[in-house]
Amino acid sequence: MLKWAIIFLVISIIAGLFGFTGVARTSKTIAKVLFFIFLIIFILILLLGKLIF
């Protein structure tokens, strides 16, 4: 899933360069949401790993 966040980030950058504002805005939003989801999951895994071990 992190792969999808990176893909959407690249799409948003390329679309921004070409001036496709609708595509850039949508892909940027998706990339941002996926990034924060994985950031939260990463922090939870770190905390749970510390509690278990």
UniProtKB/TrEMBL annotation:
<dbReference type="GO" id="GO:0005886">
    <property type="term" value="C:plasma membrane"/>
</dbReference>
<protein>
    <submittedName>
        <fullName>DUF1328 domain-containing protein</fullName>
    </submittedName>
</protein>
<feature type="transmembrane region" description="Helical">
    <location>
        <begin position="33"/>
        <end position="52"/>
    </location>
</feature>
<keyword id="KW-1003">Cell membrane</keyword>
<dbReference type="InterPro" id="IPR009760">
    <property type="entry name" value="DUF1328"/>
</dbReference>
<keyword id="KW-0472">Membrane</keyword>
<dbReference type="Pfam" id="PF07043">
    <property type="entry name" value="DUF1328"/>
</dbReference>
<feature type="transmembrane region" description="Helical">
    <location>
        <begin position="6"/>
        <end position="24"/>
    </location>
</feature>
<keyword id="KW-1133">Transmembrane helix</keyword>
<keyword id="KW-0812">Transmembrane</keyword>
